[in-house]
Design a protein that fits this description.
about 220 residues, mainly alpha, single chain, globular
């Protein structure tokens, strides 16, 4: 599939709803995180939940039917103990899927996935859409990790009054490490399971906030 469509998968302007999520950054800031800590937060996510989700994206790309996709969804749900996180991934995934169906209305993979009962988790949708775009597993994993990092730095511009050029600079500085993680995630032969108690705690804290700017 054309390079242009492949690039759209990682475009922050694709209407998936990811802009509404800080993925724990808002709670971390309320706990004392400042601007210098943002790159470390991005990497902490990338090396744990980001790596795990990137591997699921690669597996979803390689999968070819509803049974395999449902299995991946069940395995991913088992790795996410926080209800708000599961719900958020499903919401973002649903938005991404709808955008994909607009771009590729006759794609068999997307139509098959849309017809099955699903909570549409973002990592699985990324993999299925990447497969529809004829991308390879490494690119699917990279798209997953990049989208996560982009959501965090975009949230940082609002939460910390951070200049977007500085925020994107953080991603640029981490690009090599993020690419290495994505490649490693795309090559695993077993689904990874990584415990993230600190990130889970931030998610639970955030869910209890009465006033907040982001959904997660």
């Amino acid at each position: 599939m054309g390079t242009l469509l492949s690039q759209l998968l990682t475009d922050g302007r694709i209407p998936s709803g990811a802009y509404a999520h800080s993925w724990g950054l808002e709670a971390a800031i309320k706990s004392g995180l400042t601007v210098p800590g943002v790159p470390g937060f991005i990497m902490a996510r990338a090396e744990s939940v980001g790596y795990c989700e990137a591997a699921f994206s690669a597996f979803a790309l390689r999968a070819s039917d509803q049974i395999e996709w449902q299995y991946l969804e069940c395995e991913l749900a088992a790795r996410m103990p926080v209800t708000s996180t599961r719900k958020a991934l499903g919401t973002v995934g649903a938005g991404l899927l709808e955008s994909g169906k607009v771009m590729l209305p006759d794609n068999e993979r997307l139509n098959q996935y849309s017809e099955m009962p699903s909570w549409t988790p973002r990592p699985v949708v990324v993999g299925i859409l990447a497969g529809a775009l004829k991308m390879d597993p490494a690119d699917a994993s990279a798209a997953s990790i990049y989208e996560d990092a982009l959501s965090v730095v975009t949230a940082a511009t609002k939460l910390l009054s951070l200049d977007m050029r500085v925020a994107l600079g953080f991603v640029g500085q981490l690009a090599s490490a993020l690419e290495d993680l994505a490649l490693a995630a795309s090559e695993v032969t077993d689904l990874p399971s990584i415990s993230t108690p600190l990130l889970d705690d931030l998610s639970q804290q955030h869910a209890s906030f009465e006033r907040k700017l982001f959904v997660t």
